[in-house]
Specification:
about 300 residues; mainly alpha; 12 helices
């Protein structure tokens, strides 16, 4: 009995530091966000005025917020679908096909993930440069160099330009994760499928995809959270929300409200909306993609 109590105390002592840190840096700040969303506060003034849900009422009528929220949803949907599809395809090719220099391609695909987001923003700002950028230089071969495209200056194109950078940054990371799952699938499964007359395409959907589905479900949550965070960082470093707010995403709008407009309480109300949206969307995705786990 004393031995069990000693082990329990030891386990408690091991877990306690992490629990304390989690409370200090996660639970308490989250509680403060919810609390401050109920106040009108400039962020620096000691005066705080309780306004209840008024910040949220104003938020629902703020068309700039609605636009930034729509742009965030667009980024989540497009980045998730394109990145997921390409990452799985590349992982399947590099895992199943005998390609010369496989390790080289794995490294090349993974490099964007180890780069700072500021470096990525610099790379794509140079690519999108209307005069000397790589993208316009390639397009000029087909259109004669007339009317260079303002990728970051056109309100209809800027969001897709940022989405392109997000996809480029994420593919390698998720490809490596899927390759790790595919490497655990026994070759005998593919041999049996081959004997049954299943081709490569059929084997992918009948064998590979079902057996890595649990890993895909997990990464879908990562897609949602990382897209919300990284879209903010890319917008801040590449466009600052321009032109004329066309590339504003919900977190960059929240940042401006907190530190440029000195509307800290209003910004915290945006933070509550983002937190709730992320949590609910992750729960929905987890429920919709739930499947029986296949064991092998």
């Amino acid at each position: 009995m004393n031995g069990k109590k000693s082990r329990a105390r030891f386990a408690l002592l091991c877990v306690l530091p992490a629990t304390i840190l989690f409370f200090i840096f996660m639970i308490y700040p989250t509680f403060q966000v919810f609390k401050m969303s109920l106040y009108k506060w400039g962020g620096y003034s000691p005066k705080k005025t309780f306004v209840g849900l008024n910040n949220f009422k104003i938020l629902m009528e703020d068309m700039k917020f609605v636009k930034s929220f729509q742009d965030t949803i667009l980024a989540i949907v497009v980045v998730t679908i394109v990145t997921l599809t390409l990452a799985i395809i590349f992982a399947a090719i590099l895992s199943r096909e005998k390609i010369k220099g496989q390790n080289f391609f794995r490294i090349i695909f993974y490099i964007p993930n180890i780069l700072s987001i500021v470096v990525i923003a610099g790379i794509f700002s140079a690519i999108y440069n209307p005069k000397q950028g790589l993208l316009n230089s390639i397009l000029s071969l087909f259109n004669g160099g007339n009317q260079p495209i303002l990728w970051l200056g056109d309100k209809h194109l800027v969001n897709y330009a940022i989405i392109g950078a997000l996809i480029w940054q994420a593919i390698g990371y998720y490809m490596v994760m899927y390759m790790a799952s595919m490497a655990n699938i026994p070759d005998s499964f593919y041999e049996a499928a081959d004997l049954d007359g299943a081709g490569k395409f059929k084997q992918f959907f009948a064998v590979t995809l079902p057996l890595v589905w649990n890993n895909i479900r997990t990464t879908l949550t990562f897609f949602i959270i990382s897209t919300i965070n990284l879209s903010f960082l890319l917008v801040q470093t590449m466009t600052s929300g321009g032109p004329n707010g066309a590339s504003e995403v919900v977190l960059s709008y929240m940042y401006k409200q907190a530190y440029s407009n000195s509307s800290y309480g209003y910004a915290m109300a945006i933070g509550v909306i983002v937190f709730t949206f992320s949590f609910v969307l992750s729960a929905i995705v987890s429920f919709v993609t739930k499947r029986d786990i296949l064991e092998y």
